[in-house]
Request: fold
Amino acid sequence: MVLTMASAQEDSLLLLLLPTTSPLPTLMAVFILAAVLLWLSPGGPAWALSRCRRPPPGPTGVVTALSSPVAHRTLAALSHAVDGGKALMAFSVGLTRLVVSSQPDTAREILASPAFGDRPIKDAARHLLFHHRASIGEAMVADVAAAMARHGEVPLKRVLHVASLNHVMATVFGKRYDMGSREGAVLDEMVAEGYDLLGTFNWADHLPLLKHLDPQGVRRRCNRLVQKVESFVGKIIMEHRTRRANGGVVGDECMGDFVDVLLGLEGEEKLSDEDMIAVLWVTTQIEFNFFFPV
Reply:
């Protein structure tokens, strides 16, 4: 009986010592080890998977600070905590390699580099497609006076927002809008939605597998906005075509705006309506951001 029990214990020990015939545990161990090494690499997994032999110093793991409303402050504090990271710090967001600089000289060098112009495009950006100054200024002064009379204070950001938007619309479309009207409200909403989409931190930009899933709904919002933009800008293009065909001026519009320039293109340079809508809307977004950064 004693011999039987001893033999059973030896057989159990041998089973534990013998290698398993299935390669799955070994593969899992290798995968976990590789994942840990990538995670612990300076700058995170995206830099570890890159061809860069000597990346700038940076924290390990995936940085999620970009989803914070105060991302700039979080990244600045993180760069100061990393040895040598103040000048240039590398970090990973999903599979995207990013760098941040807290020194003006380094930032200036980055902005002047051709590599900066070749940086990856945001997914939202893929899907989104100087006259009347005196009257705009007068309207702004009137808005300030009216707000002071009613409330005793002025929401200056809103006043500047409306003035800048009207300036850009006059330059690009040759039209002015009453922000209190339905058409003005629709325009204001589209511009705000466009900037919100472009400024939203979207994980699909950094994890390719999420692009088709669209977990944050960025692509769906872009598609809805594009439909509104096509309808809004398409209507303006048709109004300009009608005016040009009649050889006159419609309402308070003026000749020589950007729509007229695009409609005047001929031959190989002539644009389709779809291309014109894209150019006009992108121009509106760029000019509005120049005059009134948000």
Summary: The radius of gyration is 29 Å. Confidence is low (pLDDT under 50) at residues 1-18, 250-255. Residues 133-291 form one domain.
